[in-house]
Amino acid sequence: MKFTTAGESHGKALLGIIEGLPSNMPVDEQNINEYLALRQGGYGRGGRQKIERDRVIILSGVRNRLTLGSPLAFEIENRDYANWQPVMAPEGADVTQRRLTRVRPGHADLTGVIKYAQTDARNILERASARETAVRVAGGAIAMQYLAQLGIKISGRVESVCGIEDGGKYSFDELSAAKAHPLFMLDESAEKRAMELIDKLKAEGNTAGGIIEIRISGLKSGFGSCMQYSTKLDGILCGALMSVQAIKGVEVGLGFEAARRPGSEVHDEIFMENGKIFRGSNNAGGIEGGMSNGEDIILRAAMKPIPTLMKGLRTIDYETGEQATAAGERSDVAAVCACEIILECVAASALAEVVSARLGGDNMAEVKERYDRLP
Length: 375
Prior knowledge:
Layout: E1 2-6, E2 13-19, H1 29-39, H2 48-52, E3 56-60, E4 62-63, E5 66-67, E6 72-77, H3 81-88, H4 109-115, H5 122-128, H6 133-148, E7 153-161, E8 164-165, H7 172-175, H8 188-204, E9 210-217, H9 233-242, E10 247-252, E11 270-273, E12 276-279, E13 287-288, E14 291-292, E15 297-303, E16 314-316, E17 323-325, H10 336-359, H11 364-373
Antiparallel strand pairs: 1-2, 2-6, 3-6, 4-5, 7-8, 7-9, 9-15, 10-15, 11-12, 13-14, 16-17
């Protein structure tokens, strides 16, 4: 299975193609749109989310709500393109307008204009923008539907916002309630304090990041491999999460905490009862030796604060070389809820590729039969 995306932030549309889906897999378009709506919500978001109202348009690979086995192509229209057509149209545009030369710290602007020999950072930011994650959410929602056919589920929560933590320990089933909360935090007291901090940062023209926990349940053991570094499941999943804009760190299980404890407090002891093997804890986060071990997979990702501040940081004008204040492009203060949805979907796409590589199968019944045979 392979997932490819295309499109610019203010271009005509975002596009995605998924190759390798088996035939006869049900596709729920409403479910995809629900995930797209969740990506646009959450406390601390800005005005552009009200403009877009993203919806998926499936172009190929599905007939009568079932996959055909051919590439599934889809589109998400950029409704704001009507306002940007004069400066973004591929068939001819006035590129002297809406130029960005005051490169923004924390963005791809400066490195990108140097690498791609540009003089306008808009040619960089249009693709580097987190707007691209809309198409990854749609593709990931489809991947979740594939995994759900096998009984594999993905969920998550916001664990902290700008240092305000929800330190609770929750079961997988409890995580689903997070999406009904304004900040996807299950501890209402911590969430209230985090919302107050976001209001304060907004008044100051500042931004916030946070930590997101992603959990995968129902995956059998043996996915991924210890035989080659490139096939290790933790490497694949962590790489997928790190590919999301603004993610600066990823942990599996105990993560960095494992380095602070002695081995006796880290490694999960193994037991057998009534012929069933189980572990007494899940500090490994469901992955040992690069392979799933049958426990819930626990991933944690650190999202940096949004780098475009309303009160811009100091920078240079790339064209003149003069000191300047960074340009503003968006008005979000915090996008941790959006990031949680994105990370769920990105993890789903990466895991679906791993599962598909092991199981193969040309139709969904064949895939399910092969998965059911695994111990």
